[in-house]
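Here is one chain, start to finish.
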Amino acid sequence: MINNIINFIIISILLSSQVFAFSELDLIKATNDCISCDLIDADITGANLSGKDFTGVNFTGSDLRGVDFSKSILYSSNFTNTDLSGSKLKGVDLTGVNFTNSEMYGLDLLNINLTDANLTDANLSGSSLFASNLTRANLTRANLTNVNLFGANLTGANLTDANLSNSDIFGVKFNEVIFCNTLLPSGIDNSGC
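Its structure:
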C-alpha cells in the first residue's frame, strides 16, 4: 500500500507541483505522520490534521487557514510566512517552533507552550494567549494588539519593537524581558535598549 502511495507521489511530482502538495496530504492521512516533510507553499486549507506527527516539518509559505492541528506533534517545525488564521492548535506543544512573519490573527492559544518560539514579525492581533508560556520567545516586531495575555509567562522574552497596545497584560510575568521601543498599553518602554 505504501509503495503504491510513494509511486503515486513520484508520478505526481512529474506532472504538477500542485498535485504533489495534494499527494503529500494524502500520504499524511494514510500514514498518520509526516516527520521532516517539506510542505513548502502547500495549500492545505481546512484540512483535519489532528493527532498527527509533524516533527521538523517545513511549512514555509503554506496556506494553513482553518487547519485543525489539535493534539498534533509540531516540535521543531517551521511555519515561516504561513497563514494560520482560524487554525486549531489545542493541546499542541509549540516549543521552539518558528513562526517568523506568520499570520496568526485571532487564534485561541490558551495555555499553549511557546517556550523558545520565534514569533518575529508575527501577527497575533486579537489572539488569546491566556496563561500561555512564552519563556524566552522572540517577539521582535510582533503585532500583539488586542491580545489576551492574562497570566502568561514572558520570562526572558524579547519584545523589541513589539506592539501590545490594547492588550490585557494583567498578571503577566515580565521577568528579564527585553523592552526596547515596546508599545505597552501604558505607553512606550525603552528600559532594555
